């Protein structure tokens, strides 16, 4: 706003300085030129970050020069003094400053009407120019007030949006703490009981092997849940950068599947990967691994024993779509729409595998950060197909004839 006012003062005062010089009003020309110099000085102060000095210089110089022009030449400068008062009240939020400036401007205007004319009528500016200055002053008041009102309304909208975001973050925080309290604390309590029995040799060799397997599975699941929670917290940080680069899909999926070997073997699942070796996407590698790991983990968790999991890709003009299809319990259509939008309650797989409820919301957040899309097609008791679309690598053309398995 200071820059705008300085520019609005700079060019007109230069123009009127030349015009008054031609009309032989040398003092008024000097006043206009001095005002131009002050406006230029204000812009320099703004450029070097001295904003408070710039504000004071702008208001003081304008008040002095407008008063001098109105006193000597009766050019309607008192209306510009009112403009200065309005601008000062918009620039400063200190009421004491408002009162001082109001008294000062009122005193200056009072002097203009009480003091006799200093110069003869013939040397004063034409009435038409006084009317022109008055109209410009009134127009400036309207523009200045509306400019600040626009800023205020925008700030109010930003504050309201920040309030809504804060409420959403608080709700997520409460849900995360609820998950930590129930879904993570309880399994650790079970682990404590198992370790206690081992320490006191309360289990025979056969039972020990079974409990060791349970401990291993619980530790693996809790590690994943904790990782999801940590990633969720870090992904919610404002200003988090997503560095995207070309990524081969197949090696990432093969790496993730190795992590779940124990789970797939225990449920006798067969994972079929039908992805060309050179298929690439443009995304953040760490984010992509988290997304695929969560979706593959869900496919394993909710698949029936001896089932198949098919992982394949398709392409269009914008995205490379990664499809993860399972033969499991499926999802009710009324619930599938909310899966990616809100933290879910604790769920259990076909073999009572627990979940954190955070994974899919985290996935959607990371997918959107990588300019991707996500979709789900599911049939209860038959299976689901989770589809993640991430930007295609420019060197790859869309596949026109892709064989896409249908949901079981």
Automatic annotation (TrEMBL):
Gene3D superfamilies (alphabetical): 1.10.287.130, Histidine kinase-like ATPase, C-terminal domain
Q: Transmembrane region positions?
A: 26-45, 99-119, 131-153
| Reaction(s) catalysed by this chain's protein | ATP + protein L-histidine = ADP + protein N-phospho-L-histidine
**Which keywords has UniProt assigned to this entry?**
Kinase, Membrane, Phosphoprotein, Transferase, Transmembrane, Transmembrane helix
- The Enzyme Commission number assigned here is 2.7.13.3
Which GO molecular function, any one, fits this protein according to its record? phosphorelay sensor kinase activity
Q: Record's superkingdom?
A: Bacteria
Occurrences of domain Histidine kinase (ranges)? 179-394
The record's section on SMART domains has:
HATPase_c, HisKA
> Which CDD domains would you find in this protein's record?
HATPase
InterPro entries named in the record: HATPase_C_sf, HATPase_dom, His_kinase_dom, HisK_dim/P_dom, HisK_dim/P_sf, Sig_transdc_His_kin-like_C
Q: Which PANTHER family match?
A: HYBRID SIGNAL TRANSDUCTION HISTIDINE KINASE C, TWO-COMPONENT HISTIDINE KINASE
Full protein name:
histidine kinase
Per the UniProt entry, what species is this protein from, by scientific name?
Sphingobacterium paramultivorum
Q: What is the lineage of its organism?
A: Bacteria, Pseudomonadati, Bacteroidota, Sphingobacteriia, Sphingobacteriales
């Amino acid at each position: 706003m200071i820059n705008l006012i300085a520019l609005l003062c700079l060019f007109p005062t230069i123009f009127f300085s030349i015009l008054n010089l031609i009309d032989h009003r040398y003092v008024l020309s000097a006043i206009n030129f001095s005002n131009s110099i002050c406006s230029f000085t204000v812009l320099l102060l703004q450029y070097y970050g001295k904003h408070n000095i710039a504000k004071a210089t702008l208001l003081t110089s304008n008040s002095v020069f407008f008063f001098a022009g109105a006193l000597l030449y009766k050019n309607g400068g008192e209306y510009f003094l009112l403009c200065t008062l309005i601008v000062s009240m918009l620039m400063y939020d200190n009421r004491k400053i408002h009162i001082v400036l109001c008294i000062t401007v009122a005193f200056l205007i009072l002097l203009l009407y009480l003091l006799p004319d200093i110069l003869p009528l013939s040397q004063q500016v034409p009435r038409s120019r006084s009317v022109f200055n008055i109209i410009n002053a009134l127009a400036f008041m309207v523009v200045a007030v509306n400019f600040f009102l626009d800023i205020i309304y925008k700030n109010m909208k930003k504050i309201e949006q920040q309030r809504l975001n804060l409420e959403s973050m608080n709700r997520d925080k409460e849900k995360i703490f609820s998950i930590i309290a129930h879904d993570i604390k309880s399994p650790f309590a079970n682990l404590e009981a198992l370790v206690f029995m081992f320490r006191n040799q309360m289990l025979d060799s056969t039972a020990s092997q079974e409990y060791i397997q349970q401990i291993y599975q619980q530790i693996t699941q809790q590690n994943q849940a904790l990782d999801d929670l940590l990633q969720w917290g870090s992904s919610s940080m404002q200003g988090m950068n997503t560095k995207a680069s070309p990524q081969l899909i197949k090696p990432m999926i093969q790496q993730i599947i190795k992590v779940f070997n124990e789970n797939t073997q225990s449920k006798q699942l067969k994972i079929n990967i039908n992805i060309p070796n050179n298929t690439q996407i443009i995304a953040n590698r760490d984010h992509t691994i988290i997304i695929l790991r969560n979706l593959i983990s869900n496919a394993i968790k909710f698949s029936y024993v001896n089932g198949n999991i098919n992982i394949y890709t398709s392409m269009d003009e914008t995205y490379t779509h990664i499809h993860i299809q399972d033969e499991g319990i499926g999802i009710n259509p009324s619930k599938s729409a909310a899966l990616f939008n809100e933290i879910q309650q604790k769920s259990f797989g076909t073999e009572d595998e627990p979940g954190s409820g955070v994974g899919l919301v985290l996935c959607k957040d990371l997918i959107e950060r990588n300019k991707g899309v996500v979709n789900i097609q599911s049939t209860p008791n038959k299976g689901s197909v989770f589809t993640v679309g991430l930007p295609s690598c420019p060197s790859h053309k869309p596949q026109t004839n892709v064989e896409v398995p249908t949901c079981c």
